[in-house]
Specification:
Layout (H helix, E strand, L loop, with lengths): L6 H11 L4 H5 L5 H18 L5 H7 L5 H16 L3 H13 L11 H17 L1 E5 L12 E4 L2 E7 L6
Antiparallel strand pairs: 1-3, 2-3
Length: 163
């Protein structure tokens, strides 16, 4: 995954990825392609680089906007991904490829360690086993599902004997 020292570098790379003029994205322009790049910048900045850049700093780079603009942009992309919007899915994949982001990339291992600790405590407390799922498996009938940091886990009861 590419690393950046400033939000300006991140912003410039997102604009380069989509061949959009950075000044157009910073302006109050509401053209669909410009707004989409702005939202993608917010999404990638918050999703993959949140440990490096605050919401405020990400917003300042796109024309002095505040943190709520970044949150709105991130949420907009997430909702379009959930509905499997073809254009957004294609653009997100293009951005991931451009930034060399793997499916399970993390800025550092802190998130993974924290996630494992949470699951260990959950498993011990409720005497169950949490199993990580990908999004396609959710449709199966499972006894219990938890969500932690947008990752789904199936809960299996350890006390039940399997047939």
């Amino acid at each position: 995954m590419k690393t950046f020292n400033t939000t300006k570098e991140l912003f410039q790379e997102v604009c380069n990825c989509f061949n959009v003029n950075p000044n157009d994205v910073r302006m109050r322009c509401r053209k669909k392609n410009v707004v989409l790049v702005r939202h993608l910048y917010c999404w990638v900045g918050h999703t993959y680089y949140k440990r490096l850049f605050s919401l405020k700093n990400l917003g300042m780079e796109i024309g002095g906007r505040d943190h709520t603009t970044v949150i709105n942009g991130r949420d907009k992309i997430n909702s379009l991904l959930d509905t499997k919007d073809e254009i957004v899915v294609r653009d997100v994949q293009k951005l991931k490829d451009y930034f060399e982001i793997g499916e399970y990339s993390l800025v550092d291992n802190t998130d993974l360690i924290q996630e494992n600790e949470v699951l260990k405590r959950f498993n011990k407390k409720y005497k169950v086993e949490a199993v990580k799922l990908n999004h396609e498996i959710i449709a199966l009938k499972l006894p219990f599902i938890i969500v932690y940091r947008n990752v789904y886990y199936a809960i299996k009861n350890k006390n039940k004997k399997e047939k």
